[in-house]
Predict the 3D structure of the following.
Amino acid sequence: MPRKLEIRIGAAGDALDRFEAAWNRVQEGRAMRPLHVLSFANLPLLLRTLSPARWALLRDLSAKPASIYELAKRLGRDYKNVHTDVTQLAAIGLIERQADGRVAVPWELLQAQFRL
């Protein structure tokens, strides 16, 4: 099964609802399934966080992990800007830092869900 991250737009209370549903499953003796969700409060925040430049960075890293320097070179971008983007994407779990200093995308699938 591919490692999947669900990207959603919703209120902070949605996380509490997911926790409650998981708690109830455990109490009922049903199996837990891993659920990885990244929620944004609104669409403008999601679009600022996943800008076109950051999306290109994620796509590049999904093919092959790299150092920040190598990534900046591959993308033809300034090292400082790539470093900033990597730091922010790592902070929200879209990128992982590896022991050897390279960064990688741990997800095989990003699935977006937007409720009106």
